[in-house]
Specification:
There is one protein chain. This protein has helices at residues 10-63, 68-75, 81-93, 97-107. The chain is mainly alpha-helical.
Length: 109
């Protein structure tokens, strides 16, 4: 097996160690930044979802008060933003309580 005599010198070992430490530090910083970005994006999505959930509940409480508790049960089960957007639009445009109930039943299905 071939052994490079240069790699055995103290100077080489010192430079190699320093390079490895700098690489690790750089990797940690990049990983931390990426993690923060993902966390921020996830927080934004959760905030939008919570806002839409509250908007749906407000629409139901205002237009169809008898469905308020049923809506609260259904809305808290939804974890997808696009599904809440569709529900909000459908409930805001629902012509009557029966249609609103049907939309709420489909919401958590």
């Amino acid at each position: 097996m071939y052994s490079d005599p240069l790699s055995q010198t103290p100077t080489y070992q010192k430079i190699f160690k320093q390079g490895r430490e700098e690489g690790l530090e750089e990797g940690r910083e990049e990983g931390l930044e990426e993690g923060l970005q993902r966390g921020l994006e996830q927080g934004r999505e959760e905030g939008k979802l919570e806002g839409l959930q509250q908007a749906v509940l407000t629409v139901v409480e205002t237009r169809f008060p008898p469905l308020s508790e049923f809506a609260r049960q259904r809305v808290t089960q939804v974890r997808k933003l696009d599904k809440m957007e569709i529900a909000f639009k459908a409930l805001a445009a629902a012509p009557d309580e029966n249609t609103a109930r049907m939309m709420l039943e489909l919401l958590a299905a």
